[in-house]
Amino acid sequence: MDLNQLHQLVASSRRGRFWLDLNPMTKMVLAFCEVSLAICMPGFAYGFLLMAVLMLCAATCGLGKTYGKIMLSVLVIFVGLMILARALFYEGGGEVFVTLGRFSIYKGGVLAGLRASSVILGFSSALVFFYASTEPEYLMLTLEQYRCPPKATFVILSTFQMIPQMGVNAKTIQDAQRARGIETEGSLWVRAKAFIPMLMPLLLSSFSAAEEKSLALETRGFNYDSPKTRLRIVEDSKAQKAARIGLIAVTAAACVTGGYFKWLA
Amino acid sequence: MACIELKQVSYRYPTSKTANLKEVNLTVESGEFIAVIGRNEAGKTTLCNVIRGFAPHFYQGKLSGSVHVNGKDVLRTEIGDLSWDVGYVFQNPFNQNSGVKATVYEEISYGLENLGIPRREIFDRVDEVINLLGIAYLADKHPMKLSGGQCQRVALASIIVMEPAILLIDEPTSQLDPKGTEDVFKIIDMLKKKGKTTILVEHKIDRVAEYADRVILMDEGRIVRDGPAAQILSDPALLEYGVTLPQTALLGLRLREEGLPLERIPITIDQAAVSIGALRKEGGGI
Ligand SMILES: Nc1ncnc2c1ncn2[C@@H]1O[C@H](COP(=O)(O)OP(=O)(O)OP(=O)(O)O)[C@@H](O)[C@H]1O
Ligand SMILES: [Mg+2]
Q1: pTM: predicted TM-score of the whole model, two decimal places
Q2: Contact criterion met (CB < 8 Å) for A161 and B140
Q3: Pick from A162, A168, A232: which is nearest to B99 by CB?
Q4: In A, which residues are within 8 Å of B83 by CB distance?
Q5: B49 alpha carbon, closest ligand
Q6: How far apart are CA B99 and CA A155, in angstroms?
Q7: Domain encompassing residue A124
Q8: How many CB atoms lie within 10 A of CB B171?
């Protein structure tokens, strides 16, 4: 990539994909509404439907793989367990769904499991889609525009950026441990045992890094008392502002109605 | 004009039992290129920390004496107010990036953003520095996925793009190969020609001999030698302070030992060529 291309990348937040180009605040409002609905909607269709719709959206902006992978594991691990647990430990009686040997699984249990999964799926698909489709830097800039203090946005953003760094550190430490004869591969138990001694150096190195980091920031004028310039510009539009207000209004109405029916049921 | 002035400065880190700087007096004129040498733990980094105000403002601890930088009384100046006066490139090449930027290009721009420089100018200045340091190939990389040497170059770029009047550079070449080291020294030399005041902590004594005007030797928190490079770096007493002499100075001293009437001890290859050439003309035995 030459410098001119980089200028363009930096100068505009447009990536030519609808979902990527939405203002982060719009996406945040959208995620907030999706989550609220997941809590308020009766029945179990909502969570599954939302997951499927967002999968389509993700596919249109090249995020299908990222989103799909995470949601698949959520589906298998959490939702599977949730349904199983609710179904097995259901005490309501009623109509039997299937009989497995001595166990009877009741329809009511399965339904309860599905309802709980719907909430989990609603939460996770909304959040996963939001994180996948939002560049952290633009999120920070947006928060700054909404008067979030730079120190707070810095903490949020550096946490985002720290995750790959932690991975690198963890690997270095693991290599060192292996060199000293600590087993880091093998069964789950072996790995768990190796994980605990790894935490200490990882945390300690994070602490001393924090001291150096705050000095490094100082040298870069982080506390220099002047309005800051931002190379990146987040685009917003009247239409999006209207859409945000509309979304919140519609969601509020839907939540109230949905909540009422849920309470009735 | 003196742009750095330390008078009778003693300093101790809060966790340290003894003073880490002892009665340091130092006057630096604007535009000087000074190298600080000395064995490990001699107090070189601490000296930089005091000049930048990190000690005592950040590290706390006790400081006596006075520190003035660019006309400001550092002890009475907010730590953030010196960002524009003093650029400081740290010894540890890692952990120097802001941690909030996704590309090296933006990492380098970060200081200018914080100083509130207009966007157009930021683009121009970052491009210029990137080309100057020859790191265009790194511009779109993630700052956390760089090697040690690459980190050092990016750290240097991130500071010099801010064009501070004074540069503190703490061992900028520890992770670089000879070619990379030479490149960095050329850049520092070029900054000197632009009139920047530079204090460089460096162990690579041959490079110091070639580029620095003035050399400061530190030991146990004190400045034990301070003078023109040629004088300090040709003094065999340096060896007692755990620093080596330039190869050519060692050669010169050895030749003198062998009885050759060397007029002065060379500290660079060029000087060595001249000195030894002179011997030959006098028919001194070569
Ligand atoms: N943050 C700190 N807290 C407490 N003591 C410190 C701290 N930093 C350095 N020291 C101590 O101060 C003394 C001088 O250290 P300093 O880092 O200035 O040495 P240096 O000359 O830069 O060494 P090196 O060549 O290893 O970088 C040492 O005894 C060191 O242990
Ligand atoms: Mg040091």
Answers
A1: 0.79
A2: no
A3: A162
A4: 218-221, 223-224
A5: 1
A6: 10
A7: 3-134+235-264
A8: 20
* CATH code of B49's domain: 3.40.50.300
User: Which residues 6+ apart lie within 8 Å of A148 measured at CB?
Assistant: none
Q: What is the pLDDT of residues A27-78, one digit of tens each?
A: 999 999 999 999 888 888 999 999 999 999 999 988 889 899 989 988 888 8
Instruction: Examine the domain organization and report whether B15 and B114 are in the same domain.
Output: no
Distance of CA B129 to the CA centre of its chain: 19
CA of B50 to the centre of ligand 2 (A): 13
User: What crossing angle do the helices spanning A24-40 and A45-60 adopt, rounded to 10°?
Assistant: 160
**How far is A119 from A125, CA to CA, in rounded Å?**
10
B87-127 confidence digits (pLDDT tens): 999 988 787 888 888 889 999 999 999 999 999 999 999 99
Of B214, B236, B258, the domain-final residue: B236
Residues 6+ apart with CB under 8 A from B230: B264, B267, B271
Distance CA B81, CA B57 (A): 12
Interface contact B114-A1, CB threshold 8 A:
no
* Any atom of ligand 1 within 6 Å of the Cβ of B12: no
Q: How far apart are alpha carbons B82 and A186 in whole angstroms?
A: 53
Q: Which residue of A has its CA nearest to B162?
A: A220
Q: With CB atoms and an 8 Å threshold, state whether A220 touches B98.
A: yes
Between the alpha carbon of residue B43 and those of residues B49, B94, B170, B225, the distances in Å are: 10, 21, 12, 14
Confidence of residue A201 (pLDDT cuts 50, 70, 90): low
Task: State the distance from the centre of ligand 1 to the C-alpha of B45, rounded, in angstroms.
Answer: 6
